[in-house]
Specification:
The protein is α/β, with parallel strands linked by helices and 530 residues long. It contains 17 helices and 22 strands. Helix 14 runs antiparallel to helix 17. The chain is elongated and about 90 Å long.
Length: 530
């Protein structure tokens, strides 16, 4: 069975004819690797960028690749030099050009792209073909598109055989006798190219469509636990805990309940506060305790050596602060037991208490084990990754041994890139190279990139520089016009499309796991042994 990317079309736009071909290509032997919908760009003679897209790139082991263009409809013809597809009901769809020309351009692009990226000429088989799965073609489309590379409805009945014959045609015409040694590199290049297109929103459904699907899953979960006055919800990184918690808070507010939403991370509480339009109180625990007790009393109680607050429960029991109908804790794995106990005094009789947590992200020595015992209820478990590409999750799982129970995302993605250096200067050079590639070559927006570190910028290898290449470093999360530098701890609970993780020496697996799983689509790890 062929290896096909993506492994399902759930999050992708496609036509009926493309879906039919996609399903048929799955029947190819395991000698084949198939990529669906690969956009590309190149400069024309005037230096302007031109866009193209290949419906399918099909790679055959030890042989080469072909670019396949797919068209549906009932027939194809050319009238007054304009190509058109006949549709049901007598309607026609005008094409900008011969579909074989589209396939041919894609084939040439990937041949040249290989040389551009590797510095070596592509020597294996390459070619193109067109597929019309719903009608027969009885003659050549043009002089450059013979019947041998046209797959019509008759040939489509046995698509694997038809694809084999197309490869045979090119292998003979190009007199290729090599072993296709460059094809592993070629496959990686095409996969990465396609993934950059996903990152720029060119392949996946609109964010609105994807959020609608995720919302449906989350709403169903909340409906399921609706009549549980108290609930513990445990889930791995990327399973949607925070957004389910937020939706629960909004539901309670809609029912005119007073709602307190607490988390550990100050930045996360600010992010959620700005995201919600409801009358919900968002705090990280420390800010909330200071608000309730007053700054002087808070500082007296707070023990800077271990983060605990002696007598905090008693102080909360004596406060005249308001009580809440609903209290929600996110990132509960980082809460101290006395923090949890203190909040019980602010919950109205018959109030709702929901806590969300992940044991494997406990990087602040919280007391989640004791909190679980205090709650004395079995947790509900979220086990499907909605954030990270499958290759990022699998890589994080394999390198840390954490998150093994979580079902990967259907989006496969590309494998994270890890580089290790003994010299700071070389690590900085690598980060500069990555940033330039993302912004200059792939035209990724600054707003999609974050540079995470296990140290503050002042204690990192970047302490004496204020730029990476031509790009200013900022520690302001909201400054999306520059390269944002943030610590893992301050970014906990957050996520971004692209994460560059700067690690200084060996870290705890849990800290690395949190860093890795902040990345949705692309992860670069730069380690320096300093």
């Amino acid at each position: 069975m062929a290896k096909i990317y993506p492994d399902n079309l759930t999050n992708f736009n496609y036509t009926g004819s493309e879906k039919a071909v996609y399903q048929a290509l799955k029947k190819l032997s395991d000698d084949y690797t198939v990529f669906f919908s690969v956009p590309w760009q190149q400069k024309n003679r005037n230096g302007h960028e031109t866009d193209g897209e290949c419906d399918f790139v099909i790679v055959k082991k030890n042989c080469g690749y072909i670019a396949l263009e797919v068209k549906g409809g009932k027939n194809i013809s050319i009238v007054d030099n304009v190509w058109q597809i006949e549709l049901d009901g007598g309607n026609t769809h005008l094409l900008k050009r011969n579909p074989a020309d589209q396939a041919r351009e894609s084939s040439y692009f990937f041949r040249d792209y290989y040389k551009e990226k590797t510095g070596n000429s592509y020597k294996a088989v390459y070619g193109y073909a067109v597929c019309f799965p719903y009608f027969s073609v009885k003659e050549d489309l043009d002089m450059q598109t013979p019947r041998e590379i046209i797959i019509d409805a008759h040939k489509f009945e046995n698509l694997p055989k038809a694809i084999d014959r197309v490869f045979d045609y090119y292998q003979k015409s190009q007199n290729y006798k090599g072993d296709g040694s460059e094809l592993d590199i070629f496959i990686d290049l095409v996969n990465t190219k396609r993934h950059f297109a996903i990152l720029k929103g060119k392949l996946i459904k609109s964010q609105e469509e994807r959020f609608e699907e995720i919302n449906l899953v989350q709403d169903t979960f909340l409906d399921f636990i609706k009549f549980h006055r108290k609930a513990m919800i445990c889930g791995g990184a990327g399973t949607g805990k925070t957004f389910i918690a937020l939706k629960k808070a909004i539901r309670s507010a809609d029912e005119e309940r007073s709602v307190l939403f607490l988390c550990y991370n100050r930045r996360l509480s600010e992010y959620l506060r700005h995201r919600s339009i409801k009358d919900i109180q968002f705090y990280n625990y420390h800010a909330f305790a200071e608000e309730v007790l007053g700054k002087d009393n808070y500082q007296t109680l707070f023990d800077l050596t271990n983060g605990s607050m002696e007598s905090i429960e008693y102080e909360f029991s004596m406060t005249e602060w308001q009580k809440y109908d609903t209290i929600i804790i996110d990132e509960a794995q980082d809460f101290q037991l006395e923090w949890f106990d203190s909040l019980q005094h602010l919950l109205n009789t018959d109030g709702e208490f929901y806590i969300f947590y992940d044991r494997e992200q406990a990087i602040f020595d919280g007391h989640i084990g004791e909190i679980e015992k205090r709650f004395d209820l079995p947790p509900f478990f979220l086990n499907r990754n909605l954030r990270n590409s499958a290759k990022i999750q699998n890589w994080a799982n394999n390198t840390t041994g954490l998150g093994l129970e979580i079902i990967p995302n259907s989006l496969q993605g590309v494998k994270p890139v890890r580089s290790i250096f003994d010299e700071s200067s070389k690590a900085i050079k690598e980060i500069t190279k990555i940033v330039n590639k993302l912004i200059v070559e792939e035209m990724i927006n600054f707003s999609q990139i974050v540079l995470l570190s296990d140290r503050t910028v002042g204690n990192s290898i970047l302490s004496n520089i204020d730029k990476i290449g031509n790009y200013k470093i900022t520690t302001d999360y909201e400054d999306r016009s520059n390269l944002r530098f943030l610590t893992i701890q301050s970014f906990k609970g957050m996520e971004e499309d692209v994460v560059i993780f700067l690690a200084h020496g060996k870290n705890r697996d849990k800290l690395n796991f949190v860093a890795y799983t902040r990345a949705r689509y692309l992860l670069y790890v730069v380690e320096v042994n300093k």
